[in-house]
Design brief:
Largest sheet of chain A: 7 strands, mixed
Strand order of the largest sheet of chain A: 2-8-7-6-5-3-4
Number of helices of chain A: 13
Strand content of chain A: 5-15%
Distance between the termini of chain A: 55 Å
Oligomer: homodimer
Shape of chain A: globular
Chain lengths: 399, 399
């Protein structure tokens, strides 16, 4: 009997998956060995702040007051009309846009939404441009549809997009450009000026190649912005923008898998694109975004987690790391620090960090070697306990 | 500017999607014209029976008693250990199997589960065998991974599988065989004897071609069986069986998107297959099955919708249609009747039915022309009101 039964496309992913599981197992072993209090896990983007109290209230309200076959039944694949209308109204109110229910497709989180829109738009060999560093899962999403990821190298001085290289790398095959601001893993936010420049380049290149290029704005961190920084709404700057949103971080609901796509009426071939997104939702096996949670979030669109808790973590960790001699662009949003590794090989640095019981993620996972991601969506007290370990790690490199 | 922006693979689906939407719109127009009471929609498999009362109780309990970051947070991609263990225990208790949490992957309904396992196992050009008539979405799921659907023609005398043709059509490229019993659209249940024959053929052919062929048992209708008929548990008859289950019908929760895969430890290359299923769950954009509902269903594994309500519908509609001269194999499960159209062209028959304000689905959608599917998961009173229309439709053909 052949023993290797899994899809060839999955083989490397399964190997890497096992590596992550091995890390996870090792973390558990470390916790057993040193005590959970003495292992500092900064590896996961799992929100530490509680969902706002409105969530539990809304869940109980929906379960008590609504017809159960409505709450738990099928609706049209893009979602309940009432939810889609509430989402559109809320975006319009906040950003001065003009969307209707027909522009919203409720999705199984942002990851579900990105797969839906890529399934809708991409042909094999199409190119998807990403700015390094970027969320590594984009590689798998593009690969699901046999598209090719094209990386724009990082500007490590600012982690803002390198626009010359971007313009040079757009080809006739470029179908989607992904932006993610506030960014995972750097926490940087793109300014309005930067967005206008990106839009101008994409307009010019769409014209040049005679086919629209879609800007896919992946926005799970939109609400997690600090110091009053503005996160511009992309659809206002570029016609062929599609927004992928998630309530995972804004309402601390990552496990519930609820988000949406915004597909403006202005995008080229709107009728087909919106229909395709509904069909893709169905045939990729989502069928629809979870029904109960659709009704719940539509009641909680003005609620928000307490971002000040993340801000306090950010200030403590950022200031302490700088004091210990680390280099880091100060993040304006999300809940990550992207820190320069103290040696060229980020994986070796991550291994060294583990000796100090610090669990962090190598930057090469995000297409940016020589850096590491530190997720500070953790207890403030754990950060305090971990500071001596970060200090000792820095001292290891001062010899 | 090019106007046709959607993926080539999606073009026909979007066109058909529009046809379904057109039918839906027409249904609404009919309701406006004749009154909603006078339009008889038998087209959708959306459960009409309420979820058992345990569901609402469990939701409120989980929300009140559990840590909200646990209820709404990320867990390992295959699901909460406590849920997976509860599911395994429940299957073991009912069917005398011996599964553990490590054999269960929680999924976004059965549709999500089927995409996960196909992503895990299929290479382009691999063949997936289905028995006509079959749930048409299987075509899209296979196409998502560039696999080929191979149809076994229907035995319209019984709607049991044609085993000779099955054996003849297995090739070196056959990777998956899908069975769905109780069946959508016929409602037939495969006997233990039939399953043993299928297993024997698959064992022989796996041996002959030197590679295991997986039996994928799609079981959303397992709990909807009538007259005490037994629905055998497939893993007991064939080693390389993978079960896809959904709570959509058993607990009337289709909108919530909650189900699971059972991947027995005995399947070939188990370690890689189970790892691949976890990775596929993540990269297809599901990430994990909805967290709150995972915890809810694990408290409701012994609950069940009132199947007697569907049984009453079945008896009324089946007996009445026979009386009017229709031909139909009496279903033993699910909530569909698969009825012989009164003319060769099932689409023309469906159009004729619409003139009587009856909305039903052509059998060609299920790979079985000349028949129609009538979903009786509707109000009993609507069936009573619709009977004269079914009678009049039959009389149209008696001239």
């Amino acid at each position: 009997m052949v023993v290797d039964m899994i899809s060839k496309k999955m083989e490397n992913l399964v190997k890497n998956g096992s590596a992550i599981r091995a890390m996870f197992e090792e973390g558990k072993k470390m916790a057993d060995l040193y005590g959970a209090e003495n292992v500092y896990d900064f590896s996961l983007g799992n929100p530490s702040v509680e969902p706002p109290k409105e969530i539990a209230e809304a869940i109980c309200e929906v379960v008590k007051d609504y017809n159960p076959n409505y709450v738990h039944g099928y609706m049209l694949n893009p979602g309940y009309i009432e939810t889609r209308q509430a989402v559109a109204d809320n975006i319009n109110k906040r950003f001065g846009t003009n969307f209707g229910a027909q522009n919203i497709v409720m999705t199984v989180g942002a990851a579900g939404g990105m797969n839906v829109i890529m399934k809708s738009l991409l042909n094999p060999e199409d190119e998807v441009i990403v700015f390094c560093p970027y969320f590594g899962e984009y590689r798998s999403y593009a690969s699901n549809f046999d598209a090719k990821i094209v990386e724009i190298s990082p500007d490590t001085s600012s982690f803002q997009p390198k626009l010359d290289e971007f313009e040079a790398k757009i080809t006739a095959k470029t179908r989607i450009v992904i932006v993610n601001t506030p960014n995972n893993p750097t926490g940087v936010v793109y300014s309005e000026e930067t967005i206008k420049k990106i839009a101008a380049i994409m307009e010019k290149k769409s014209e040049e190649f005679g086919a629209p290029i879609f800007l896919l704005s992946d926005e799970p961190y939109r609400e997690l912005a600090f110091d009053g920084v503005e996160v511009p709404y992309m659809t206002k700057y570029y016609k062929n923008t599609i927004v992928g949103y998630s309530f995972s971080k804004s309402l601390s609901l990552p496990g519930d898998r609820i988000g949406y796509l915004v597909i403006p009426s202005e995008v080229d071939d709107f009728e087909n694109v919106i229909s395709a997104a509904g069909v893709a939702t169905r045939i990729l096996g989502f069928v629809n975004a979870p029904s109960l949670m659709q009704l719940v979030v539509s009641k909680c669109l003005d609620a928000k987690v307490d971002v000040e808790i993340y801000n306090r973590n950010r200030e403590l960790l950022y200031n302490s790391l700088l004091e210990y001699g680390y280099e880091c662009v100060k993040p304006e949003g999300a809940f990550y620090l992207f820190v320069k590794a103290l040696e060229a090989d980020d994986k070796a640095f991550v291994a060294k960090a583990k000796e100090h019981r610090l669990l962090i993620v190598p930057g090469s996972t995000f297409g940016c070697a020589g850096y590491v991601r530190i997720a500070y969506c953790v207890d403030y007290d754990m950060i305090k306990r971990a500071l001596p370990a970060f200090k000792a790690l820095a001292e290891d490199y001062k010899v």
